[in-house]
Amino acid sequence: MKKIMFNDKFGLTQAVLDGRKTQTRRLLTLTLHKKADKGNELIEVSPTKVYFDDGKWKFVYDNYVFLLPGKNYPKYKVGEVVAIAQSYEDYWKDNADCYSNPYFLKGEKGWNNKMFVRADLMPYQIRITNVRIERLQDISDDDCLREGIIEKWHAPACKNYYYVPGIDVKSVEDVYDTAKEAFAHLIDKVSGKGTFESNPYVWVYDFELIK
After folding, report:
1. What is this structure's pTM?
2. How many Å apart are CA 173 and CA 182, to the nearest integer?
3. What DSSP assignment string belongs to 32-81?
4. What is the DSSP letter of 69?
5. I need a surface site. Which of 7, 27, 73, 100 has the fewest CB within 10 A?
6. Cα-trace Rg, the chain
7. Confidence band of 38 (pLDDT split at 50, 70, 90)
């Protein structure tokens, strides 16, 4: 079984467990061997088009069509069950039975770093229900909410406002008029400043919590 990690700083793991987040986007990065004076140079490229044709994923770069390398194919498939990565401490710190298992000892890497936990020891899983590819900025308002953006109705203003999960509202700068504005702020925090503006291709995974 594979595992998947969600950002804890912005409460995305908890949003999945609460059923508020049922979709995730993962950046598509591509590498090519480009001829240079001193041999082949491995470079990262941004495709101008990615599409599925004749049973194969393909992409366009510098006006040439390339086959998408297998390592850049979507990591998860429709119907696949994937473990939600949590540090051992996060889930088992209040469970006395965990201490009989050597993986839950504080000396283990997975105790406070979920990157190193075993998928088969994770208590919660999701099932992938759909996989597609799109440009990041093509996200709809409904999909922003599926990504975990919080929507709240404010009676005095008679309208909805949108919030990034995990951020305490301290000023008007933490409140957004549209779901897409809130999502753009979130993705820039999670994936790096300027990510939304660069409008990369992303794999879009829809999923459901099954345990």
Report:
1. 0.85
2. 10
3. EEEEETTEEEEEEE--SEEEEETTEEEEEETTEEEEPPGGGS-SS-TT-E
4. P
5. 100
6. 20
7. very low
